[in-house]
Design brief:
The protein has a single domain, classed as Collagenase (Catalytic Domain). It has 116 residues and is α+β, with helices and mostly antiparallel strands. A three-stranded mixed beta sheet has the order 1-3-2.
Length: 116
């Protein structure tokens, strides 16, 4: 992904905490599964170019989604982590179907590489 020497932070939280983050940063109500906070965009992007950003994952939502999908919490967590990292790298799925398809394809490629 052309980012061999970057770092990111992973925050594992419960639904109430991710709900607060979702409201505070995106003005969205309710918990969500994953939120990405990229550090390579915005006015401070040049402060530390090696810092990719932060990914917050609700372990409660990951567990619920995993159970619904019939997969382990570990597998769902890995899917969400890859999803969040792709957001940090500039992928988006909310604006257009073409972007969503591109992001899903990349996600599947990565998950296949790590045997998920």
């Amino acid at each position: 992904m052309d980012s061999p020497d970057v770092e990111l932070s992973i925050l594992i939280v419960d639904d109430p905490k991710i709900e607060v983050l979702n409201k505070e940063y995106f003005n969205r109500h309710g918990p969500t599964n994953v939120i990405a906070f990229p550090m390579r965009t915005g006015q401070f992007k040049k402060i530390n170019p090696q810092l990719l950003g932060d990914v917050a994952i609700s372990i409660e939502t990951a567990a619920k989604e995993g159970q619904i999908a019939g997969i382990s919490i570990e597998e769902r967590f890995t899917q969400l982590l890859v999803h969040g990292i792709l957001h940090l790298l500039g992928y988006d799925h909310e604006k257009t179907k073409k972007q969503a398809d591109k992001m899903e394809k990349k996600s599947n490629e990565i998950l296949k590489l790590i045997d998920i």
